[in-house]
Here is the input.
Amino acid sequence: MSQKPYQITALPGDYIGPEIMAAGLRVLRAVTADQNFDYTVTEYPFGGAGIDAAGDPLPKETLAAAKASDAVLLAAIGGPKWDGAARTPETGLLEIRKALNLFANIRPTAISPVMQRYSPIKNEDPVDFVIVRELTSGIYFGTPRERTADYALDTMRYTASEIERVARVAFEMANRRHQHVTLVDKANVLATSKFWREVVGRVATQYPAVTLDYSYVDAAAMKIIANPAQFDVILTENLFGDILSDEAAQITGSLGTIPSMSSGANGPALYEPIHGSAPDIAGQGIANPFSMIKSVAMMLTNSFDRRDLAATINAAVDQSIATHIVTPDLGGSATTEEVTNAVIQSIQESRVSYEPNHV
Ligand SMILES: NC(=O)c1ccc[n+]([C@@H]2O[C@H](COP(=O)([O-])OP(=O)(O)OC[C@H]3O[C@@H](n4cnc5c(N)ncnc54)[C@H](O)[C@@H]3O)[C@@H](O)[C@H]2O)c1
Ligand SMILES: CC(C)[C@H](C(=O)O)[C@@H](O)C(=O)O
Ligand SMILES: [Mg+2]
Here is the structure.
């Protein structure tokens, strides 16, 4: 009996968002062709595009579709066109994360051998770590939040259960990797950070195979440049994770290479590049599509258990990098479309050579 097609909600968003979403969906089509993977993709307006289409960055239909789907692919939102809006594109992004309960945001940084030449730092040991960023609490969501003529106030607040559930994600991940978690905080100053240390320390006792150490966030920012190979899983709160993940991305050579997964206890996960809508390069056809293409690979592994298809995509991305078919952010001269074509061609060639009955 054939299974109902998977439903994927695609949110192209703004500026380079639609450019890289098109690349990601082309790769998804190519890698799933004849692979017994039946799916539908439906695009919905979100972010600035949501404001333009429906007067809201997160239109009701968009949220309903996202909730009802098996996975959500998001490209990027925001930009100067909507900076003065009453409800900004960024508000829509925070709302969809909260509405889908996406409390754990996984942002990997790995410098594969072919990427090494693009890295601005010298790495003697292999760099391969993951940032597990808390995504639905902390200073992004805390109340009170207010602004008067004389002062402005944001609130950083964490409950024990919010810390515990994301800590478990980090320890589970470390169990499957190199059994090490680094909690990044500012426990020399902040009450929330002191509390994170207590709660994470308790969770750690349930994972005896995993070692835990701590780093203040300022020192962690330095270590990501000085010796990134020391990290396996970095666990951190929302704002620190936002900042450190852009820094970590850049040691691969470009922010445009890093995908992410955001997930919760139940319901669909959301996959998106960690970067934004890059208004400075939008419309030129030169956005790096790797972050989106690798987000598609992360979706295939984590939402659909198709590690085989994800591996095919990642190998094709590496092939494109190895032959220096890359966009200008990585020092190349290829367009988004040329890079995407190269990745698709490499996927198709790998199929020919690995076809089981091929003689
Ligand atoms: N998840 C999201 O949708 C998300 C994430 C971050 C920022 N934003 C929004 O994006 C807008 C622009 O923000 P910003 O300029 O600070 O950050 P950005 O991440 O959009 O861009 C920072 C720099 O990186 C470059 N860059 C980013 N992605 C690239 C890619 N794929 N290929 C080549 N170069 C790339 C840009 O050209 C720019 O120079 C803002 O409105 C911001 O709020 C959205
Ligand atoms: C656009 C912004 C709200 C968002 C964040 O801070 O989470 C972005 O920087 C990200 O990293 O996804
Ligand atoms: Mg960010």
Observations:
- The mean pLDDT is 96.
- Residues 189 and 311 are 43 Å apart (CA to CA).
